[in-house]
Design a protein that fits this description.
Mean pLDDT: 91
Number of helices: 22
Order of helices and strands: HEHHHHHHHHHHHHHHHHEHHHHH
Distance between the termini: 37 Å
Helix content: 55-70%
Length: about 525
């Protein structure tokens, strides 16, 4: 929700859905077992909202809307025939997108001044840690691995060769160079999930083309290149990095915090296994759970997510949300068990790097591109699925209305996100412009937070204590759900300024228990 590119992507996806349902005509509406599983999971993910704390629901709301948007996208994709030719085109597009993202990432490392705004300022501010449009190393890495997997299948299948020998040599060399460039960049990222995903992509492609059914679609030389080219790219990356592979992938502090978070998330689940802690409550519940432990809080980092999607949905939504996650898994397994041709298998296996990433981080919350890629690849792998056909009158008009609303909502959110982003980075000539901004319901939490920050700015400019009190009141509510060090520090300093020393001391003690790594809260 904070990245305008995601909102723009949803607008384009909604436009695609609108055109599809308008042009569907009198055709039957097709629904597959996997689509029904996705629908069931969306219902199960939403049900815990009935018993979750009302104040925390706005945090979970974008995620729930995204899940239902995914059901809409998948149902729409099922109405379009995705044959082998279309799947191959999809793989070329994924590969091209990954190569472009790789080039942007490398530019961020070595020549950020040539990047467009805001990528240039981000690359300079977070040198080596804000690559490409995704602005996060591991999210970029899993996207590059998805493109790498697409390139491996395009390289290995000899039936994808071009008719003219010279054109085929050019295509072959471009794919080889792209594979080496992607793997070298993954080494530069120090991304363990990128490496694991790359090894998985190589293994899946090797196993698939080793099958007797598909062995005639390749040669021994091309099967050897599945492993040889990524290894050469990795060696090139280590030469550029001037560091061993093992050293580049060791993150001792990160390892300790990850294992700590997983352990205590499981303990939280044992406390409320059936009902969960509430949608949108993980950040607050986890930090308070850690601060209530006997002795000192062992956590040394703010955790908004346990870095495991399965534990996250179980901790927040309880057994009902976990059942939704199992429905998603069942939908993927249904696709896996169905007989498919080579490119349907390739499409399904190419989802694995991103799906694997969800078990160590939360890429689908950062990037609509990742989410849409997974849905596209799953739809392309449906194969000879048993289909339930329904009359279009039951679906067409409601889904056209949903698509139209999606376009309108995405446009409003995109504009609001640009304006609020400019305010938050002090690029608005008149900060009070945001008070005249129409912000849709889905972004109201962020908007109300910015309004309160404007009140703080007003106090700093006019010394009007009433503005400071307004900010303190809204900030007190904010820090009940958002464990932000700066917000706590602001509140403590304001309480001291207002001569409410007892409240300030109590809050400072609480902040020290919640965030022991921040020296500002030391007794």
């Amino acid at each position: 929700m904070n990245l305008p590119m995601n909102l723009l992507s949803w607008g384009i996806i909604s436009l695609f859905g609108l055109l599809t349902w308008l042009l569907l005509g009198t055709k039957k509406v097709c629904i597959t077992p996997t689509c029904l599983m996705l629908l069931t999971s969306a219902v199960l993910f939403t049900l815990p909202a009935l018993w979750s704390p009302h104040d925390a629901l706005p945090i979970a709301l974008p995620r729930l809307i995204g899940i239902w948007g995914g059901v809409f996208v998948y149902l729409t994709l099922l109405q379009l025939p995705i044959r082998e030719k279309e799947t191959v085109t999809l793989f070329y597009l994924l590969a091209a997108a990954a190569v472009i993202e790789c080039a942007l990432s490398l530019a961020g490392f070595y020549c950020p001044q040539y990047l467009p705004f805001p990528l240039d300022s981000l690359a300079e501010k977070y040198a080596g840690y804000a690559p490409g449009i995704f602005q996060q190393l591991n999210v970029t890495a899993s996207f590059l691995v998805t493109g790498l997997a697409a390139l491996l299948y395009l390289l290995t299948d000899i039936r994808r060769s071009l008719y003219h020998p010279r054109a085929e040599r050019v295509r072959f060399m471009m794919i080889c160079v792209a594979i080496m460039m992607l793997t070298a960049t993954l080494v530069l990222f120090h991304s363990r999930i990128g490496w694991i995903g790359g090894i998985m992509a190589m293994g899946c492609a090797s196993i698939l083309f080793a099958q007797a059914r598909f062995r005639h679609r390749t040669t021994r030389w091309r099967r050897a290149l599945i492993v040889l080219l990524p290894v050469l790219g990795g060696l090139l990356g280590t030469q550029i990095l001037h560091q061993s592979v093992v050293a580049s992938l060791l993150h001792e502090g990160s390892n300790q915090q990850r294992w700590l978070t997983l352990e205590y998330t499981l303990r939280m689940i044992r406390v409320h296994p059936w009902q969960g802690w509430g949608l949108g409550m993980f950040e607050s519940a986890f930090q308070h759970f850690m601060s209530a432990l006997p002795g000192d809080n062992p956590s040394r980092e703010m955790m908004q997510h346990p870095h495991n999607e399965t534990l996250f949905i179980w901790a927040e939504g309880g057994i009902v949300a976990l059942a939704g996650g199992l429905c998603l898994l069942a939908g993927w397994v249904v696709l896996c068990r169905r007989r498919k041709n080579l490119w349907q298998w390739a499409a399904l296996l190419t989802t694995l790097p991103i799906l694997l990433h969800t078990q160590v981080e939360f890429p689908l919350y950062y990037s609509v591109a990742h989410f849409f890629a997974v849905l596209l690849l799953m739809a392309a792998s449906e194969g000879n699925a048993p289909v339930v056909t329904l009359r279009p009158l039951l679906f067409r008009l409601p889904l056209v209305a949903v698509a139209l609303y999606g376009i309108m909502l995405s446009s409003q959110l995109f504009y609001a996100s640009i304006m609020l982003g400019n305010f938050e980075t002090a690029r608005l000539a008149d900060p009070h412009q945001i008070t005249r901004l129409h912000v849709p319901w889905l972004m109201q939490m962020r908007y109300q937070r910015d309004i309160s920050l404007l009140q703080l700015a007003n106090f700093n400019g006019s010394a009007d204590v009433s503005e400071l009190k307004k900010y303190a009141q809204s900030n007190a509510q904010w820090i009940t759900l958002h464990m932000e060090e700066d917000a706590y520090n602001d509140q403590i300093n304001i309480l001291y300024f207002l001569k409410r020393r007892a409240e300030a001391d109590k809050l400072k003690s609480e902040a020290h228990q919640l965030m022991p790594w921040d020296d500002r809260f030391n007794p």
